[in-house]
Amino acid sequence: MMGSMAVARFVVPADHPALPGHFPGRPVVPGVLLLDAVLQAACALGEAPKRILRAKFAAPVAPGAEVDIRFETRSNGRTGFNCRCGDTTVLLGEF
Length: 95
Prior knowledge:
By secondary structure, this protein is an alpha+beta fold. The relative contact order is 0.27.
């Protein structure tokens, strides 16, 4: 089980097969890849989320950008997540 705060990091490589066509001229990492990375990181840290209760995409992520995921156990028994590229929040939510 995660502690009160845990951190993970990931990068979607620029040659990922989901990127061509998403979007021509300005590639953006698809949201499903970001959510998948959150779930994989949660599992690696000892959490086994059954479903994502809410998610908000706040900013686009460019291929090759490093994304830091912070998990926080909340008093209601849920786990919150916040994904950031540098100082910019790109995704936040809860499971």
